[in-house]
Each structure stands twice: as structure tokens, then as C-alpha cells.
């Protein structure tokens, strides 16, 4: 990942009792020095984000898991707007996670709009894309990823591409225990970078971090991170375990 910081994201999803969150904060705070080229971002639930922000070590960035599709606070029951999130000092968001695409009807256009809102407000974005198993079996991986990526790329304001991280998360690998092999992940990351290069130019395409997500664990992170186009991870299940430290350490 030549010169780029390795991004290690932890997506806690809808998990975490207060006790569990306290122990995860302690786990991170007691983990010792992170590798110099690791950039760590964790996304607790909206309920826990304030506590995490107050108590976690300052070299752990805190993220929300979603944003509302309008930029300003107001009559949006149950939602979080970018201005409120920023007021809290939170500068990261995960957008377009496959669970939100699948269960909350987030279309590629909806995700693109949210990316625009977040970037215009100065936030950094982990934008998630990825194909279903049936897409992969039909040789449609890149077609599906491009259709998800296009509205995201169109949404990037001038000069903001440095705040975009693309998370390639094949849906068949999320929460299933089936990880893409390092070669499978590398092949898709390489194709994604080539596509980025066509759309945004080679310099920006090289600088954008493309991170892999889908059953990343302590046991497979070392082999994945060795690959030329894998610039970090988005971790679900294993971010709720002690082994998240090991995944952070793999960026050394
Ligand atoms: C995720 O939710 O982004 C994810 C990759 O989950 P898991 O690591 O549990 O597969």
C-alpha cells in the first residue's frame, strides 16, 4: 500500500451492551502503540458513539454507520444529520453498507447523495460497494461494483477525493465466515483501481485507499494486507473481539 496509511475500520453494526462497549474501549486503550502507518476508525452504534468519543484513545477515529439524506438537522425522526454528527466532533462515516442497501432500500443514487452531503461537510467517507454471490457466479462482479461506484464518484466535490475510502465488501463474504481469498480480493481491487483510474485519473486512483471487508480475522489479515491493491480492512464481527488488535497490528 506504498506510502498510504493502512485504514483499519471496525464496524460494530447494531451491537454492544454498555458493558461490552466499556470492554472494547479498554481493549483498544490498552493495546499499546499502533503501527505508525495504521489509521484506525471504529463505528459504534449511535447510542454508544458519545461514550466512545469521550473515552477511547485519541488515535482512534470515531465514525457513524450512516447519515440522513438531508444535510441539516430538523424534523427527521430517528435519523442523524451531518451537521449534528460534525458538531460532536465526528469526522468519519460509513455509507452504503450492504446491510443498508439490502434492508433500508438504499439505492446507488441514495448512497451517492449521502456521500456528497458528507464530503461537502468536510467529513471522511468509507463508501461500501460489493456484489452478491449470484453476481459473482454470473461474472457480473465489476458490472455491479461499477454501478454502485459511479454515483459515489460523481458525488465527489473538487479536491475531496483524499477523504474517500472505497470498501470492497463482497456480500457473500460479510458475516459468513467465507473470506475472499487474497487473490480473489486482489483481482477485484486491481480492477476497481483500473476503473477509478479511467474515471478520476491515475494519480487520484493510486491515492485512494481501497479496503477489503468480509470475514476479515486475525488469522487471514496478514495474507490479505500483503496484496498490492489492498489498503486496509473494514471489519465487522472481529472488530468486537480482542483479535481486532491483531488486525490493526497487521498494517505494520
Ligand atoms: C462488515 O460488516 O463490513 C463486515 C465486513 O462484516 P464481517 O467482518 O463480520 O464479515
TrEMBL record:
Reactions catalysed according to its record:
D-glyceraldehyde 3-phosphate = dihydroxyacetone phosphate
Extract the InterPro entries matched here. Answer: Aldolase_TIM (IPR013785), TIM_sf (IPR035990), TrioseP_Isoase_bac/euk (IPR022896), Triosephosphate_isomerase (IPR000652), Triosephosphate_isomerase_AS (IPR020861)
Q: What is its EC number?
A: 5.3.1.1
Please name the GO terms that the record assigns under molecular function.
Answer: isomerase activity
Domain of life of the source: Eukaryota
Task: Please state the pathway this protein functions in, per its UniProt record.
Answer: Carbohydrate degradation; glycolysis; D-glyceraldehyde 3-phosphate from glycerone phosphate: step 1/1; Carbohydrate biosynthesis; gluconeogenesis
Which is one Pfam family of this protein?
Answer: TIM
Keywords linked to the UniProt accession: Gluconeogenesis, Glycolysis, Isomerase
**Sorted alphabetically, which CDD domains does this protein's record hold?**
TIM (cd00311)
Q: What does the sequence similarity comment in the record state about its family? A: Belongs to the triosephosphate isomerase family.
- Oligomer and partners: Homodimer.
Task: Write the protein's name.
Answer: Triosephosphate isomerase
